[in-house]
Structures
1.
Amino acid sequence: MSNFVSRDVRSIYILIEKGLRNVDPLADAIMDSASDAYNLALILYKDDSYRRYLEASLLASDDIDEICDLFNLTSDVVTTYRSVFYDVQGLNQVQKLKLASACVNDEEKALKIWAVSQGLPFIKWRLGVRVEVSPVDSIRAIHSDSYFKAREAFFSGATTESSREAMKWAKMTMETAKLLKSWVSDMDAASEELRIALQKVTSEDLDFGDIKNIYQDNGETFIETEAGASIDEILKENSAVE
């Protein structure tokens, strides 16, 4: 049960540092002959900035390729780092939060907790990478957060402070709800206008051009056949039926 609640994510590195053999085959292999991937991973581990952000990214996502792109690293380096220095693969959200909360440094703790909560886009944003966020998606996210913050405050106790917090977040919930409703209404109106406009389209509004011009543009000679002569009429008839 203790392994389920928590585990030493740096166990392989500890074995290597202590020179303990015949405990784990990966540790033994590295002690026998350290690869270039391990040597670079070790450099990253010993650099506080790289270590914090790389480990936060591993907490935020299992997508190794996306993490590689973010740090301009190869997959063998990132997978080696995860296997040796920060084996968080397979941990659930609670285990990840416990691991993040155990950080001694407050800045690192906050970074990793937010990484678990918000995912890799948050890490990208912290690193200055442009992250595209839909305005509607952002309002929905704020609406959801405000709703649960209000509920949290309501159930945190009958104090003046909790009441103020509840009212503040409830107001934000209502404001974002209005914005979302307004957006949906506008979209419905736009869809209705498009539907009405499409109903008025007839075959007379469609111009398919002259097929001879297409052949000429391609340097070919158009040979008119019975089907070719009537193709424009056929297309117009089909569009009128639709």
Note: The two ends are 65 Å apart (CA to CA).
2.
Amino acid sequence: MEKFFLSNIRAIHRGQIVSALGIVVYFLLCAVKAPEIAIAVVLVLFTLFAVWVLLSVIAYPDRTEISYNITWGQGAVTIMLFAVMYLTLKSLI
């Protein structure tokens, strides 16, 4: 199971950056009035990635390297992406 998660703190930091870029990409797609299906696909992909990074943060073996800022920050980004994804998918159905 350890091979599934990100293995070092540097990879987790990069994962957090990509997760946060998901929110930026969402705002950009909304600004250019992209089709909602394209926005939904992007949100699903970034949300799944953010959940994977959050699980990697939670399952990281050395808790001294993971600060509360990393844990809460990734949790907040994941919740925001999930909420926007849910509302976008709900509007499509």
Note: The chain has three helices and no strands.
3.
Amino acid sequence: MAVSSAFARGLLRHVYSTVTHGATLLDKLNSLNNEAVHALETGKVLQQTTGNGRSVTFQVNAQEGVTPTEMAETYSRLLDLYDDAVSAGNVTDATRYAYMMARLKPIRSFRNDFSNLIR
């Protein structure tokens, strides 16, 4: 499941609201991206198994909601948007944030278009 634009917008709002004095939006995004990637370094393993008198428990990614992989991809996407905002000439975090929010448009509907399909 891909993360929706609405989720990415909400995440960006949250991240921007937690930027403290002396830090930048880029600092916060990089920090959160590093944490998300670090959470994936151990891999995915089984929750629990028992056999032959031994028991082992591991962690499994959630079956519902946003997975750690999706969070890492979302932070990477936000960092790409941040780079686009800088390239577009935005010089403050406020203008970069506004640029990023404008680019994260929610998708309300879609349709398949096979008009150029060739047999």
Note: The helical segments are 5-17, 25-40, 68-87, 93-103.
4.
Amino acid sequence: MKILIIFTICVLVFAGCTTVESQKMRAERDQLLKNYEDLREENSELKVKDRITDTLLGKWKFLSLEMAESGVTQEVAEAKAALYALELRNLTLEFFEEKGIYHYRGKKGGTEVFGQWTVITIRYGDEPFPFIRFIRRTGPELEKLLFAATEDGRALGLSSAPGWDAARDMSISVTPDRLYLTMHGKMQSGPAGWVQSGGVRCYFERVEK
């Protein structure tokens, strides 16, 4: 009888421990799912587009042009980028909103550009990456102005090389004081997730009013 009582107590204790452990595991699982959903919500397409759009508004001055491509074309590409950057020294771009429509205008010497723009996102894995599309109204297309792109979309007239994407949309990254526009960057998956490599990158700094 005593053995039966001891056995019953052990079973109840084990069952209680199992229940507590199961509840703990469920709570941890629920928390992980919540963290994942919070992260997805934070990086939702709409929030990314709104954040980029709000930060982009204002006036920007050209800083530099950089080749992020590797391989046999590196030295040629860097030389072409350095020479063309000299032509962009006085370039300014302004992004503004008027009656619910987003416009851009820019000036480089006697060349002026004007048109509309919109931010889009393309999802790689679970993360949306921002790109910007320009609709030209007057002046040259921005691809030609910023990157001396040819009619077939080759930045600086360079032939396609590994690490370059054929997409015409520019990727965009912006902080309160820096703007980065990249043409022909290729999206690649790595240990830290999706990253953009290669391409031609244009840097701007914000002009304080």
Note: The chain has two domains: 1-42, 50-206.
